[in-house]
Amino acid sequence: MNAPAKKPPVVWDPLLRTFHWSLAFFFFLAYLFESDKLGMHSHAGYTVTLLVLFRLVWGFIGPRHALFTDFVTPPGQVYTYLRQLFYRTAKRHVGHNPVGAAMILTLLVSLLITAFTGMCLFAMEGSGPLVNTLVASWPGHVVEDIHEFSSNFTLVLIIVHVVGVLLTGLVHKENLIKAMITGEKQPDLDFPANRPDEPYHGQNT
Ligand code: HEM
Ligand code: HEM
Question: Which domains does the chain have, with CATH numbers?
Answer without folding.
Answer: 14-182 (1.20.950)
